[in-house]
Amino acid sequence: MVVCLGLIVVGVIAGIAWYLHARHYESTDDAFIDGRPVLVSPQVTGSIISVDVTDNQVVKKGDLLATIDARNYKAAVDQADAQIRQNEATERNFEAQIAGQKAQVDQATQQVTEAASALKFATDENTRYQDLVQKGAGTVQRAQQASSDFNGKQAALDAATAAKVSAERQIDVLNAQKVGAAAQLDQSRAQKDRADADLQRTELRATVDGRVTKLTGAVGALAAPGQAIMIMVPLEIWVTANFKESQLADMRVGQPVDIRIDAFGGRNFPGQVNSVQAGSGTAFSLLPAENATGNYVKVVQRVPVKITFNQRPDVELGPGMSVVPTVTVRP
Asked: What pTM was estimated for this model as a whole?
């Protein structure tokens, strides 16, 4: 009897001790290593001429992963360069024509000035001889000659003025053509930029530090935009732990976490709570639960919690590996 009572007392004490200790922690085995894998897809079409990595190889940002046949894209760059040179020559030609036309306008302006001076002299002479004829002091023949000279000088001024106007209008025409040539030059430069970009895209390079996986690209295969030839797993990883909503009452950002990784014999790594998702996992699923119809059965929801490592683990980890995080919710 005494022994039984003793065992009961010991059990109660042990239970109380366990409760007092366990209430400081929240843990779950519904957790895994997470990351953001990057699909490596070409942006141009062509045959793969080299694959410079192997499965599970670690690469640095900027490392060459694969190369696509660039001959057509180099030809496009050369063609764009030639088009730029041609359009630049066209623009310079219009500039030269405009400069020459401005010289013609200056010459026409000088001719208008000279014709106006000659007309003024002819006008004065015509007026003077007409007055002399009326007074009987001059001959009719000389008056007629002065009138004819006046008409000739007036016609010369009209012709010079028309030539000046025509020359000025030709400058407007050349300026409009120069604007069109400049637009074509801008277009050819844009084509050159696009050709340069396509040529650079024939070299597929790593956008992040990470490891290569799911390598499907092979030499001789036809690569096309949108078709992944490998997947890059970034070295930046974290833990996504699906805690029950009843475990979140005391959980806060920044709380320490002990992360046990199954793949390495339960080895532990320190971390901390980074963030708590704004909603349960089912709320953002492809087919969220519809509780407004049928019989409702309450189920405890799980909420994803992002946990980061205090420092990068010294072991190879990848998305999907199982872990057991334990969060210290009370000091």
From this structure: 0.69
pLDDT band at 133 (very low <50, low <70, confident <90, very high): low
Residue 67, both tokens: 């190369």
Q: Which residue bears the tokens 């970034």?
A: 234
For the stretch 181-240, pLDDT in tens is 889 999 999 999 999 999 999 999 999 999 999 999 999 999 999 899 999 999 899 999
pLDDT score at 192: 95
**Cα angle, residue 13 at apex, residues 11 and 15 outer, rounded to 5°:** 65
| CA 111/CA 107 separation, integer angstroms | 6
Q: Which domains are assigned to the chain?
A: 36-69+202-234 (2.40.50.100), 71-200 (1.10.287), 237-331 (2.40.30.170)
Q: For residues 86 and 143, give the distance between their C-alpha atoms in angstroms, rounded to a whole number.
A: 62
* Largest Cα span, the chain: 171
User: 259 Cβ partners below 8 Å, 6+ apart?
Assistant: 239, 268, 269, 270, 271, 307, 309, 323, 324, 325, 326
* Better-predicted residue by pLDDT, 299 or 26: 26
State the residue for tokens 């690469």.
Answer: 59
| Pairing relationship of beta strands 203-205 and 64-68 according to DSSP bridges | antiparallel
Let me know: does 47 contact 68? Beta carbons within 8 Å: yes
Task: Please state, in angstroms and as integers, the Cα–Cα distance from residue 280 to each residue in 25, 271, 285, 288, 310, following that order.
Answer: 21, 22, 9, 10, 26
Closest CA to 171 of 112, 115, 88, 108: 108
Contact in structure between 58 and 208 (CB atoms under 8 Å): no
